[in-house]
Amino acid sequence: MACAAASERLRKERRMLHNLVEEEVRARRTGFILPIEILGDADGGSRLAVWLVTLRAEPAQCIEAPPGHHVPNFRMAAVALPLLQGAGSETDAFGQAYCFLPLSMATGLNAHVSANFALTANRRDLWRRSDDEASSESSFRAAWNEALLEGTCPKAYCDCMELYAALALGAEPPFPTDLDLPHPISVQSMWAVWPSTGLGHFSEIPRLVSQELVARDAKVFLDADANFLSAKSALLYPDARYSKLDASLRAAISRLCLAGRRRRVVQVPEALCELLDIKGVTWLQPQSLSNMLKGLDTKVSAQEADCLVDYLLSGGSGPLSLLHGLTLCPLLSGKLGTFWPAGEQTPEYMWSEDPSMQELVNKEFVDPSSGTFALLKPRVANSRLNLRLLNSRALPSLVESVLPAAWRHKREVKLLADGSICVDDAPNPTCQPTPKLQKVPKPKVQKQNLRYESRKRSGYEDWDDYDDEEDYPENAPAQKCPPAPDFSETKPMVSVNKESELEVVVRKCVLLWKLAEDVSDKGSNPVQHLQDFPCIPVIAERVGVRLVSMQGAAGLLSVEDFASEEVKVLADFGVLLARPGPRLRTALGVHRSAALAALTKAVERSKSKPPLKQRWHLGLKDMRLDLDKALPLKRLVSSIALRGTRKDMERSLALPIFETCGPFAVPMLPGTCVITPSAEWDAWLEPHVGDFLISWTETAKTTLREFGIQRSPLPEFLARVCAPRAGLFDQELSLAFLEAVASLGAALWKKNGVQKDLAAIATACEAAPVVVFPNRRCRCCDLVDPADADLQEMLPDFAMLPPPEYCSPVVLSVLRRAGLKSLADEDVFLTAARHIEENSGSDAFAGGALLKQLAARFQSLKWTSRSFTSLSRLRIFPAVACQGAYPPKAASSTMTVALDSPCTLFQHAPIAFTQLTLLHPSFNQWPKPLLQRFGALKDPPPLPVVVANLIEVARRWKEAEAAETAETATRQGIVEKHLAALKSMSTRSHATQTGVQHSLCTIKFLVLHDGSLVSPCETFDALHDGRAESSDEDVRHHDGQATFASQASPSCRAIQDTDGLASKAAKSSKKARWGLPQYLRPYRRLLLGIAGPAVQSVQQLPTIYVQPAPSNPVPDFIQASLNRPELADVIFVVDPLGSPRMLYAHRLVLAAASEHFHAAFSTYAEAAEARCRVELPDWVLARPMLWRCLHTSTRAMMPQKPSKWPSGWVRTSTMGRDCHSEGRIGASLLTLRWGRICAAYYDSLNSISWTT
């Protein structure tokens, strides 16, 4: 499309030139100088006026006259310009119109115009267009005048101006003339004769004159050097605006225009600017200047280049495409770069406000101090120029070009003393260069515009420059860009192996952080591109550290936050210092108060003197700092903490700034210092832990008061300081410690809910050797309570009393709580008991004192059952030896026994001396709860023991000789006590009573008056006959014995009933007398129960004879008909799918036994069938006993209920009985279908009574 438009425009222009040449051949023009002397001035003199007159005659063939009218052969016009007017003439006089003679109309031009006009009859006006027909005479005359005013007169005026310019320069006239110039013409007056305005018919002549001059390419444009130029050689600019341009810009434009396309700047008066804004005239504008400078090697200074860029961009708002191809970019190297559109094949210039960034990239940088930089700065980010911003977006590639890839995810880079580099305490990894990449061929240069090439071949390179201002860059020729640098050869990877190379990397890292800090985009985080590498430069090196990563920059501080003295203190402690920007500060949390945490870590890393007394310093962290180093540190920390937050105050406590009683300072942390509750403790502990003991002098107290530190509470001090070292105290410190513990009260001795500090104090008192002897130390558990001094006598080698200094009530209260040995302690008591057991020998009373203490302190003892069990196993308890047929009367023969075997008190000797061990009579005064703690002690002896003892005594008496009178009384007393013990038998169970009866009924233990022994059975009649004299038995012995008759065994109750019958019979006879000893009278009923007839009777039990039931053949017949097919009307089929078996039943039996069968055989369809066939389900196969039951009709062989009922079955009761409770199955279906009623039939068989 562009080529077609260009071809059409070229054709039209050639046609226009052809017509112009043809007219020039036919037209005639001439010029001459007309001097006129004017006489008759006011002063009577004369003056000379010189006029430049040009004549022009053009053929008039193109105009057709109406019939009958004569048409002149030529259109003739003349123009007279005043070259010199006499003195007193009016220089500003307007031109006059002529037609052979002057006319009464002014032209408004700077010259007189004469032509063969068609005038009106009165010669006052020219013919004008009207509504007449085109062929009328009026239209012909108007057309004639128009041809003169639009063609001949402007051309004649142009001839005059060309002749005027030739005369001014003294050049050859452009056409034949007869000139004899009396005076020279001023060149500067050329713009004065240029037509600017016109009146009436002549108003269009200035515009037409300007167009004709441009079309002729007449040299009538006057430049600043007084040279006349044609329109194609001139670059027009308004005179008023051109004077306001910078001088360097005007000089550069003039020089560049002349060097570029041989143009000169022409300053046009403001009055003519509008007239010259026509086609063919080039005005000095940014677009035209850019077109002129394209491809030109501009050799201008940087200042001129800035002025040109400022003009081209109209102060910064113009299109940046005007800069394409212009070498106007000021560089830091002093050269000028060429602006190009951004692309892969264009050289790039780096853009950064910091000139030092040039060290990062080996490319040309735009000069940030230039005016071009300031002009393009707001627009460079979105421009399409070959300017690359060096900002955070370039960080990923810059990091790879600055730091070795092997440093990724490393924490720090150190420079060792020998000059070697180590990364994370390891040798610097060797960097291998990458292989060269294959060279990429360059793309072909785009072909230039065909229209531009055709113009160059035709020789008309500049004729349409004015049009380029409108449609550039669409119709502009393609610019050739210089080839971009060849990046196919890649550099080797970054290798840092020397100190000098490391210094270069450090400087580049500083520049990288500058880029990261200069980011203004919202939401961008350039720090993330640098966080994987050790790229933070360290100012104050710590052991040669030069670079650290964000992970290794913990504790990094900023130099700007501290004074010079403070920086020195931080550097002495090895704190990392840097100059971070705002972003790095935010990412690392760098602020002044962070120095506290950094100093804490630095102090922990530093080494201090080892403790001098390891045992005394046990548990103390050695974070001491020499006082001369601690004082500057204290001033720094105080200045930060006192102006900071509460958290800063807490962090300050971790720094060694608090003075001690020694030449050191320590932190105020648990385990790093010692704070006492009083000055007395300071004096006691200073010889031992003075280097860690906080000083409370006036100077130190000021610091402590600033940080709000007070003396330690007594419990905390005792728990954290004294408790771990209680075993090291001398006697004075030990007594002070124990007295301090006593002041805390009994709270620390609780077993549950004790505070941690109090528990630690109690543990120290119990476990540490706090009792100091002259030559040894002992724990509290190794000593004996002075109140139990007799324990030392019992255990001379085992027990030891504390020194007299520890026997004060206050100290003893703690020692006793801490485990001082006492008989109240179960372990101590058992230990003493074991010692007595081992060393007592044959002395039965060796443990008497120990047992006496047990009885006395029993109410306050809180021993466990296990302790009493362990004590009962020791043979330390005195007992009485028992031999013979009579219980001992006193402790004549003693021995030691253990209470783990059955034993009893001495007071129960008559009823248990043959069965149980008898304890010494001293145990009778023991509290009963204490006796109950020994499980083997029988108090009172149980009933079986009494019975066995009575049997054994009877045996021994039987074997002995006949008793004497005294022995008889003794024996009767023993029997009476046994009978008194047996009276409790009425409250025992029936089995127990029966057992006692069987055991004693035939035993001869009853002692008569003559000393003979008889059994209860032998005295039965005597006991029975003496009932009359024992009528008050229940009254006299109502204390627990009256209920025996009602609770006796059945045999006894039968005897009692017989006794009642006998008593009735005895009322008629005389009363019987009591013939037994008197001591047996209270126990008559007891003895009758023992000697009852149920035990001794020899008769057999009565036999009851029952007559057989009368015979009834119906049940026998029904039973015989079971499972027989003759009369059966119901058939049960077992396992119908396998090998079926038939079971025959009867409806009558089933209906009588079960209501379900009754309903089935009377209501449903089965009632109409002669014989019902029921196929039983598979689960019936699991009951083979069912068939046997059907044949035998015995309940003993009935199967038990199934372990799992089939689905759909419900257990029910049949015939009013719960068959399940009797071990039978009662089940039926709710739906009563034949396939599920076998359980109901099974139930019906069980519900029939087959026997009478």
From TrEMBL:
Occurrences of domain BTB (ranges): 1128-1163
Pfam family, one: BTB
Positions of region (Disordered): 424-490, 1028-1051
Residue ranges of coiled coil: none
Biased composition (Acidic residues): 461-473
Biased composition (Basic and acidic residues): 450-460, 1028-1040
Organism domain of life: Eukaryota
Official protein name in the record: BTB domain-containing protein
